[in-house]
Amino acid sequence: MEAQTSAVARVNANARVAGPIILLGPPAAGKGTQAKLISDTFGIPQISTGDILRANVSRKTELGAKAKAIMERGDLVPDELVCDMVASRLLEADCAHGFILDGFPRTVRQAEWLDGHLEQLRAGKKGDSCAQQACAAPVVIRLVVDYNTLLQRITGRRSCPACGLIYNVYFQPPKVQGICDVDGTPLAARPDDAEDVFAERMKAYEQLTLPLVDYYKARGRLIEVNGDQAVEVVMAQAFSAIENVNRL
Ligand code: AMP
After folding, report:
1. Per residue in 17-29, is it b (16+ CB within 10 Å) or e — as a string?
2. Domain for residue 198, yes or no?
3. Confidence of residue 127 (pLDDT cuts 50, 70, 90)
4. CATH number of 39's domain
5. pTM (2 decimals)?
6. How does residue 248 score in pLDDT terms, banded at 50, 70 and 90?
7. 125 within domain boundaries
8. Are residues 108 and 31 in the same domain?
9. pLDDT digits (tens, 9 = 90+) for 3-41
10. Are residues 137 and 168 in the same domain?
11. Which of 95, 132, 139, 243 is placed for a possible disulfide with 99 were both Cys, Cβ 3.0 to 4.6 Å?
């Protein structure tokens, strides 16, 4: 724990120089949890493409209408739609010192687009809000987790529709079954966490997202962390990777 605390202290001292961070891993690998910890510590936003798409679905936007059925099947939303969505999000002022991408890129085309986009930002071709650090080459943290653990995490996952707190009926149950500890709202399961949809999401991950491991390895940007460990241990290893990476 001491090592973890000092990792946090070291990172705090370096706050606001994080640059782009990508969290790579299958559904329920812990990307959202780690992204939140990194976001709180480094003071950079967590950008979850899944969350943005879900928000569009519930607001019934044009993008949401296009994405809804695809997401319900567990397939990937077309690259162009997701890349446009990320491009607009990166223009926001809170991305000026870096950002964490959670769930993006998910295909080699998305990764190539992101590299090109960051390069253009560095060259000042896409607006002037981008500090050099924010559009540096990303550091990619891959969370590696065993299939059966993922299945339990997914089928046990429940969240509070009001405050967003996430529980797991096996590993982290609420005090009263089915009810949020914080605000008493009935908990909900995500429709795409059903076991059959999970199988589809894993298939999409293996076919379309796993090739990113080689993509980023070849560019010397990939750091692998065993995501089967306690959250704090994964966090300490991820933080250390972010601190020690050579951005150039
Ligand atoms: P997530 O919350 O990251 O598991 O994403 C939920 C769903 O949103 C995925 O199963 C996809 O249908 C869609 N989605 C999220 N991110 C992407 C992405 N980068 N590319 C394509 N589809 C995505």
Report:
1. bbbbbbbbbbbbb
2. no
3. low
4. 3.40.50.300
5. 0.83
6. very low
7. yes
8. yes
9. 444 444 444 444 445 789 999 999 999 999 899 999 998
10. no
11. 95
Which ligand 1 atom minimizes the distance to the CA of 106? 19
Question: First and final CA of the chain: distance in angstroms?
Answer: 31
The answer to whether the beta carbons of residues 35 and 100 sit under 8 Å apart is: yes
Mean pLDDT of 177-186: 97
CA of 68 to the centre of ligand 1 (A): 11
Are residues 41 and 104 part of one domain?
yes
Q: 210 CA to middle of ligand 1, Å?
A: 14
Query: Pocket of ligand 1, candidates 71, 110, 143, 209: which has the most ligand atoms within 8 Å of its Cβ, to mutate?
Result: 71
Return the percent helix, strand and coil in the chain, to nearest 5: 50, 15, 35
State pLDDT tens for residues 56-87.
999 999 999 999 999 999 899 999 999 999 99
The two three-digit tokens of residue 102, written as one number: 């959670």
Give yes or no: residues 49 and 61 share one domain. yes
Pocket test for ligand 1, best of 24, 31, 46, 76 (most atoms within 8 A of CB): 76
